Amino acid sequence: MNIETFKYDNRIVRAFAIATVIWGIVGMLVGLLAAVELFFPGANLNFQFITFGRIRPLHTNAVIFAFVGNGMFMGIYYSLQRLCKARMFSDFLSWFNFWGWQLIIVGAALTLPLGFTTSKEYAELEWPIKVAIAIVWIAFSVNLFGTIVKRREKHMYVAIWFFISTAVTITVLHVVNSMTMPAGLFKSYSMYAGVQDALVQWWYGHNAVAFFLTTPYLGLMYYFLPKAAGRPIFSYRLSIIHFWALVFLYIWAGPHHLLYTALPDWAQSLGMVFSLMLIAPSWGGMLNGLLTLRGAWDKVRQDPVLKFMVAAVTAYGMATLEGPLMSIKTVNSLSHYTDWTIAHVHGGGLGWNGFLTFSMLYYLFPRLYKTQLWSTKLANYHFWLGMLGIIFYVVPIYVAGITEGLMWKQFNKDGFLQYPNFLESIVQVVPMFRLRSIGGTLYLLGALLMAYNLYRTAKAGQFEPDTEAQAPALEKAPEAPQGKYSFHRLLEGKPMFFTVLAIVAILVGGMVEIIPMFLIQANVPTIASVKPYTPLEVLGRDLYIREGCLGCHSQMIRPFRSETERYGDYSKAGEYVYDHPFLWGSERKGPDLAREGGRYPDAWHFNHMDDPRATSPGSIMPRYSWLLTQKLDRESLPARLAALRRVGVPYPAGFENGPAQKDLDAQAAKVVANLKSGSVTCDPDKEIVALIAYLQRLGTDIKSAPVTTAAK
């Protein structure tokens, strides 16, 4: 037997570990500021770059891609080398992955507050950064598969299965959802429009959660939990079922984010059915993790690493039970657009991803620095602060969400809405927002304790850059299958064939849902009276996107009496055929705006944007007074109209080269005249004029308009 000596690369693991801690704290700080702004809108000091609409995507990107992303790479680079008994395929690719990812995060931190955003959930970064993400992800994937190919352990352990599914699925999701038409260095328009864009986005959005926040962390759970417990995983057979059922079923569930919207009912039903089916593999994985610890509960009580892991796996189980339950249409009719969804997301994110990341950091630092954890007591304090933080966060927000849903739907004995003013529900839940900020503060304090504990651990030890190991070379001859799992054991020795099967599993669901939406015109009935936005409205819509207004306002009226009584006629698919991107939103901190046009005079909108509480007492909306003074970017209009024409909006050829500017001037003059009649003086070149034009357009195209099934 030929024994080979090699070294594991610990430098790359340490780099990602340090980045995980730093970006985690930064992301939590931004989230805490956003939470405070929801009950104290003046917290942004009227500084446009830190308003809620701009820092909300910054917070989500920071905690998902910076904190969890670095934590994922940290865990994979540590575990993969040891599972494959091989150093990473390329040190250059490892460091390219690290520095490229950090530059992407810095790019996000700079562009999102500046208002450069696509507005698409978890995919807000503009096209140059999307290209960088693709390049860095490919480098990571090559490094991953190169290491697997040169492994010295023939059979791929279950953790590697999940790493493979993550690499290939995120590639597919990112490429499909990022199809955009550039209209400048930091401006682009989605290739898809309206209903089609919504389906592609939530196929991406749901599965970004699945294959960035879930599958890689399940792989890490399968590695680190048995290692920390000193016990083998409970069931190999259950891990097989867990993996294949999860990667096949998850990809179908995206439409459950769009229940009761203008999405065709067949797609909604598919999303609901497959979401319910997900309970089985998800809980199979949770039980496989928890049952690994059978008979080891004394160790769990003593070891903070295992404490965090047990809490993380339990949070995963709860989140993956609640998610399918929220996809049931009757439940979704109450929960959607409310803070219930926010509580659900944070229960899973803080508990599952946050706690598992903390456990890995506590596990790795003593091993990287060849010492003991500096303070077990401090780690236990962190655990309980984190638990209290989660409780103080999610419980009040569950209360807020259910309160909102019930108040929106409540009718009095005479058959009228009990709470016709949307603000009545917001005023009721503001105390819950205050409690949430306390929970976020506790969670952040725990992370700061961890950072100090890890720093002292590193100072007390001696970093080992390379860990020497020995293993026999991989035998080239195929092994004869043995035992009752012989086929899968054979499959585990063929990584490329395994990868092909994983790709097939994840492609089926997406193809079944997405392809018919583009090929069958009846899925998007058109409305003859719906016309493209005018040049001024295009710029106003882009301002609406820049300021993140869709983070608090939906543009989708569901077919419930409570919504049609409050907002107007329910939304139809044909209304959105020129919406690149769609702006249906996923949360309501303010009323739906799908029928906003003509509801209030132009002067009301002007005053509302300048000081929301002057027109709507009790509003938690921040001031947007800079819109009243900043000049409209007219120079970018030709490039924007040309880009929109390329994605299918029927502007006449050459329209952007002259007629568009005249059209813009004429409409701006009308808005200024309307403002003057409302005792407001404003120059026609100000951003507020374009935003008012866009808001006054919303919903006005389809009043008494017949719906047809003609092609677009």
Give the topology:
Elements: E1 3-9, H1 11-37, H2 52-84, H3 91-111, H4 127-149, H5 158-177, E2 180-182, E3 188-190, H6 194-229, H7 236-249, H8 265-277, H9 279-291, H10 297-302, H11 304-326, H12 329-335, H13 339-368, H14 376-409, H15 423-460, E4 466-472, H16 486-491, H17 495-519, E5 526-527, H18 535-546, H19 561-567, H20 602-610, H21 612-615, H22 637-646, H23 659-677, H24 687-697, E6 707-708
Antiparallel strand pairs: 1-4, 2-3, 5-6
Helix pairs in contact: 1-2, 1-3, 1-15, 2-3, 2-6, 2-13, 3-4, 4-5, 5-6, 5-7, 5-17, 6-11, 6-13, 6-17, 7-9, 7-17, 9-11, 11-13, 13-14, 13-15, 14-15, 18-24, 20-24, 23-24
Placed side by side, the strands forming the largest sheet appear as 1-4
Terminal residue distance: 68 Å
User: Which ranges are low-confidence, i.e. pLDDT below 50, for 5 or more consecutive residues?
Assistant: 704-712
The overall average pLDDT, rounded, is 94
Question: Which terms summarize this structure?
Answer:
712 residues, mainly alpha, two-stranded antiparallel sheet, 24 helices, 3% strand, disordered C terminus
Describe this structure in words.
The protein is mostly helical and 712 residues long. 62% of the residues lie in helices and 3% in strands. It has 24 helices and six strands. It has helices at 11-37, 52-84, 91-111, 127-149, 158-177, 194-229, 236-249, 265-277, 279-291, 297-302, 304-326, 329-335, 339-368, 376-409, 423-460, 486-491, 495-519, 535-546, 561-567, 602-610, 612-615, 637-646, 659-677, 687-697; strands at 3-9, 180-182, 188-190, 466-472, 526-527, 707-708.
